[in-house]
C-alpha cells in the first residue's frame, strides 16, 4: 500500500507522530458517527454532523496525499547536472528553490519544511494538499468548538434519562474538544508561516532566511522576494485557476512546474547575494 511504502525511512519520532494523527482521525470519525445517531432528539439537527463527516473525509484524503506524494526533484532533473548545479549533499542536480532534506535523503522541489506528522517533506508537489489539510482541519476544529461545546454545556444541565449513556456521550464530547484544541496547537505555528508563504510566494526556508514579508503581497515584499507575483497569482501558482479544483485534493492546472519560476520586475537584485550567504541545506 502506497501509504506504508515510505515506512522504512520513518524514524521513531515520525512513526509516533503519524500514529497520533491516525488515532486522532479514527477517534474523531467514530465520535462524529456517535453524535450523528445519538444527538438529543429534541434538537433534530444531528444531520449537521454529515457536514462534519464530509470535512473529515476531505481532510483524510488531503492527509493521505501529503504522505504519499513524492516531493523529490524528478529523476531527469537530478541527472542533468550540466543544467542544474549539483547538490553538495547528494551530488545530483538541484533546481532553484530546491533543498536537500537529510530526513528524506533527497533534494526536494521547492522545499518548504520537513514534517514529521506526514513523514514527508512539504514541497512543490504536495503543498496544495498540505494547505487544504490545514484549511479543512481548521474548519473541523471550529465546528467542534461551535457545535459540541454548547451541547456539552447543555448536557450538563439537562442530562439524558439513561445516566450511563449520558456519561459515555459526554466523555466522547470532551475527548473531541481536547483533540480539537490539541490539533489547533499542532497546526497553528506552521499554518501561520505557510499561509503567509502562500500569499507572498515564499517557503518556510525562505521565510527563515529573508524574514517576515507580511500577510499579503506588497511592493515592499516584492522587492525582497523575486518570486512574489502579487497575492492572486501567488495563490494560483499552487491552487490553479477555478474555485472547485482549488478546494478539492486533486492536482491543479497551475502554470508553475516547481523547476522554473516566473519572477517580478520589482526585485532588488542587490539583496540576492546577501541572502545567498544564509542559505543552507536542511
Ligand atoms: Zn541533495
Ligand atoms: Zn524531508
From TrEMBL:
Membrane topology annotation: Multi-pass membrane protein
Reaction it catalyzes: L-cysteinyl-[protein] + hexadecanoyl-CoA = S-hexadecanoyl-L-cysteinyl-[protein] + CoA
Cellular component GO terms held in the UniProt record: membrane
EC numbers for this chain: 2.3.1.225
Superkingdom of origin organism: Eukaryota
Top EC group: transferase
An MF annotation (GO) of this entry: protein-cysteine S-palmitoyltransferase activity
Segments forming domain Palmitoyltransferase DHHC: 86-209
Keywords, in A-Z order: Acyltransferase, Membrane, Oxidoreductase, Transferase, Transmembrane, Transmembrane helix
Location in the cell: Membrane
A Pfam family matched in the record: DHHC
Residue stretches spanning the membrane: 20-40, 46-64, 129-157, 163-188
Entry comment, domain topic: The DHHC domain is required for palmitoyltransferase activity.
Family named by the database record: Belongs to the DHHC palmitoyltransferase family.
UniProt protein name: Palmitoyltransferase
Species name: Entamoeba dispar (strain ATCC PRA-260 / SAW760)
Amino acid at each position: 500500500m502506497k501509504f506504508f511504502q515510505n515506512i522504512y525511512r520513518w524514524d521513531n519520532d515520525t512513526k509516533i507522530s503519524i500514529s497520533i494523527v491516525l488515532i486522532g482521525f479514527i477517534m474523531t470519525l467514530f465520535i462524529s458517527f456517535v453524535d450523528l445517531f445519538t444527538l438529543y432528539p429534541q434538537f433534530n439537527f444531528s444531520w449537521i454532523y454529515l457536514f462534519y463527516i464530509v470535512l473529515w473525509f476531505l481532510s483524510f484524503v488531503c492527509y493521505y496525499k501529503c504522505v504519499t506524494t513524492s516531493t523529490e526533484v524528478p529523476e531527469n532533473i537530478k541527472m542533468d547536472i550540466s543544467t542544474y548545479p549539483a547538490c553538495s549533499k547528494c551530488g545530483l542536480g538541484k533546481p532553484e528553490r530546491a533543498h536537500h532534506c537529510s530526513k528524506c535523503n533527497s533534494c526536494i522541489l521547492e522545499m518548504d519544511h520537513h514534517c514529521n506528522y506526514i513523514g514527508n517533506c512539504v514541497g512543490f508537489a504536495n503543498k496544495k494538499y498540505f494547505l487544504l489539510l490545514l484549511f479543512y482541519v481548521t474548519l473541523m476544529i471550529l465546528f467542534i468548538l461551535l457545535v459540541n461545546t454548547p451541547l456539552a454545556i447543555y448536557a450538563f444541565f439537562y442530562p439524558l434519562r439513561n445516566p450511563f449513556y449520558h456519561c459515555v456521550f459526554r466523555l466522547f464530547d470532551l475527548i473531541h474538544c481536547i483533540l480539537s484544541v490539541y490539533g489547533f496547537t499542532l497546526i497553528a505555528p506552521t499554518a501561520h508561516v505557510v499561509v503567509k508563504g502562500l500569499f507572498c510566494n515564499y517557503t518556510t526556508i525562505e521565510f527563515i532566511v529573508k524574514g517576515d514579508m507580511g500577510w499579503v503581497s506588497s511592493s515592499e515584499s516584492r522587492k525582497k522576494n523575486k518570486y512574489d507575483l502579487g497575492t492572486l497569482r501567488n495563490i494560483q501558482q499552487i491552487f490553479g485557476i477555478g474555485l472547485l479544483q482549488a478546494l478539492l485534493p486533486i492536482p491543479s492546472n497551475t502554470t508553475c512546474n516547481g523547476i522554473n519560476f516566473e519572477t517580478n520586475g520589482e526585485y532588488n537584485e542587490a539583496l540576492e547575494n546577501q541572502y545567498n550567504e544564509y542559505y543552507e541545506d536542511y
